[in-house]
Design brief:
Strand order of the largest sheet: 1-2
CATH superfamily of the largest domain: MFS general substrate transporter like domains
Radius of gyration: 20 Å
Length: 396
């Protein structure tokens, strides 16, 4: 339900901000404000949950989401929208805390299966949420946001009634391999620098950063881009059409992540999939930059959806495999922090281009970020990854 709330708002946030008088840059910077607050607050929430228990902090996070959505739906100015995003970013910890709860209450042999359920929930959410937005916007742009608040409220009720009471948090030793990632505070970034001293891991982390950049450029600016570039039934794209397009992408991603990824990995290997994913992203975003037809948009979306669906899980897997077991939580936390950095920088750049009506350049920026990620691939070859795995095993 938390995922539904997120994906309900995703297709319309920038256009909603425009209706309140925001410029394209101010609209895309809503993503950056959220990411800054999350980058600062997420490690603090994680530390807090270690001390007082996961359930209490999860409740706090869900309350923050409800208040943020209600503030957003009731906003009468862009500054109220910014306040709503600050509230949501500062309390954003639902997923990471839920992951920590799963790690605390499941055996190691069952943990992968438990985390797969979260992945499936995301896939379903990114399919149903935007589709529901497409249907709800006929009642006003605020309608999907109120429904997102309702979803968060239902999630809170489930936490209160169905989740067992506070349990003792495991020793810090179990934290180190937490699949959800052990994020350090912004004041501890020097610890992260040691991982950039390893050539193979550094190449893959930079690759992940470029992937996060292209994805953040797309997600923060696509609604404004589509509104200015595409026409359906005689009128520019609205959150209705954008919601349906996101639902189409979510459906394709759900098919890929629901079973095809595992078969593709067995056949082509993780490194091969990462390469094919980056190639698909370059092609998909290049088509997006150059087309103003609906057919071109659908083709672009299909190709880039494949790229996103295969790059994220396989590259994350390769990164985690290149670290020793006792480092994996921190390394995964590092990728989450790199993603936050991308979500801070990319929306700013996207907003600058869209504000100047540089539409094809916006698409080209996403394609270039993907190309830079592809160019890092030779530095993280499968042979080097295998060597890193041996080193990581020996270190453990």
């Amino acid at each position: 339900m938390d995922v539904f709330g997120l994906t309900l708002v995703l297709p319309l946030q920038a256009i909603y901000a425009e209706k309140l008088g925001a410029s394209p840059l101010q609209a895309t910077m809503l993503v950056s404000v959220f990411a800054v607050c999350q980058l600062v607050a997420s490690p603090l929430l994680g530390s807090w949950s270690d001390r007082i228990g996961r359930k209490s902090v999860l409740i706090f996070s869900q309350l923050g989401a409800i208040v943020g959505y209600l503030a957003m739906a009731s906003a009468s100015s862009i500054w109220m929208l910014y306040l709503a995003r600050v509230i949501q970013g500062t309390t954003a910890g639902n997923l990471s805390i839920a992951q920590a709860y799963i790690a605390d209450n499941s055996e190691a042999k069952d943990r992968a299966k438990s985390f797969a359920i979260i992945g499936i929930a995301f896939g379903i959410g990114f399919f149903i949420g935007p589709a529901l937005t497409g249907m709800l916007v006929r009642y006003g742009l605020a309608a999907p946001i109120f429904v997102a608040a309702l979803m968060s409220a239902l999630s809170l009720v489930c936490t209160l009634l169905l989740l067992p009471g506070e349990v003792s948090v495991r020793s810090a030793q179990s934290d180190v391999a937490l699949p959800g990632g052990k994020r350090l505070s912004v004041f501890e970034w020097r610890v992260y620098l040691q991982y950039f001293e390893r050539p193979v891991l550094r190449a893959m982390l930079i690759q992940f950063l470029f992937f996060a950049m292209c994805f953040s450029v797309f997600m923060s600016g696509f609604s404004l881009y589509a509104e200015r570039r595409y026409v359906y039934d005689g009128h520019p794209f609205t959150p209705r059409e954008i919601g349906y397009l996101f639902a189409f992408s979510g459906f394709l991603g759900l098919i890929l992540q629901g079973g095809m990824i595992g078969r593709l990995v067995k056949r082509f290997g993780e490194r091969g999939l990462v390469l094919s994913g980056f190639v698909s992203l370059v092609i998909g975003f290049s088509i997006l930059a150059g087309t103003d037809t609906l057919a071109g948009l659908v083709i672009s979306t299909s190709i880039s959806t494949y790229g996103n669906a295969v790059v994220r899980p396989t590259l994350s897997s390769l990164i985690s495999q290149s670290a020793a077991r006792h480092e994996q939580g921190t390394v995964i936390g590092l990728t989450q922090s790199l993603q936050s950095v991308a979500q801070i920088v990319a929306p700013f750049l996207a907003g600058l281009l869209l504000e100047r009506h540089m539409l094809w350049q916006w698409g080209a920026m996403a394609a270039i970020a993907s190309l830079l990620g592809l160019m890092m691939a030779p530095l993280g070859s499968q042979k080097a990854v295998s060597a890193a795995q041996v080193v990581a095993t020996d270190a453990h």
